[in-house]
Amino acid sequence: MKKFVLSVVLLGALFFIGYGIMKYTGAEPKHEVEPESSVVETPEAALELLKEGNLRYVNNHCLFPHHDHKRIEETAPKQNPFVAIVGCSDSRVPVELIFDQGIGDIFVIRTAGNSVNDAVVMGSVDYAVEHLGVKAVVVLGHESCGGVTGAISTASEHGEVAKLLDVIRQDVAPYVGKPDSLDVAIRMNADKQVERITSYPHIRSLIDNGELAVVRAYYNVHTGKVDF
Predict the structure, then answer these.
(1) Percentage of the chain modeled with pLDDT above 90
(2) How far apart are CA 221 and CA 154, in angstroms?
């Protein structure tokens, strides 16, 4: 009996010593946890999260969610974003910040003029939809977009920039040579990308079944507000 009691005491002591070492070193037991964004089950819920986050951003009430080491551990085994955003490369449009989201929340695809005109970009969108199961795809145009500005301008460019502008120009052809129509052209450009994405039958099927939303949005670089 004494040996049994002694064994129990020793096991208890070893447990508390081990736990104390873990707490001291920060080596907490690891558990595979699905990222919290997995609870977003509908396109409507995904878009509402973006709208709420942007409202916090505009009002300077950001929560800065999912920016800690806990989130890094959660998302290390697997990403589970709730939305894909095709945005412009413009440095004034930091996607996660303007929607007050964090690590693993948004699958971000950025190109000049938020253009979806090649296999790399469209393949990235398709990957987000088919493999990651995002509930929404947002094409995010923005005020004062340099890509669209260059595309509707009659000024000449050279090299790869000229090729890029030629691609965007095809989507805003009615406004070439009309710089006063920049805002309209930016929105038209984003709409064209939405049309391009939704032209794929499997994506259209998901939309028709209520499993996916593909929408255009517009970011104001002066106010920080996103209009859907």
Answers:
(1) 82
(2) 24
Tens of pLDDT, residue by residue over 166-196, are 999 999 999 999 999 999 999 999 999 999 9
CA dist 113 → 74, 79, 82, 135 (Å): 33, 26, 23, 23
Q: Which two tokens stand for residue 162?
A: 């000229």
Stated pTM of the model? 0.83
Two tokens, residue 53: 């986050």
**Is pLDDT at 32 greater than 70 in this prediction?**
no
Helix and strand counts by DSSP (H, E) for the chain? 9, 5
CA 176 – CA 17 distance, rounded (Å): 73
Here the contacts of 41-44 (C-beta below 8 Å, separation 24 or greater) are: 41/135, 42/135, 42/210, 43/135, 43/136, 43/210, 43/211, 43/212, 43/213, 44/213
d(CA 55, CA 66): 18
- C-alpha separations of 155 from 152, 158, 174, 179, 180 in Å: 9, 10, 16, 11, 15
What angle do helix axes 119-130 and 201-208 make, rounded to 10 degrees? 40
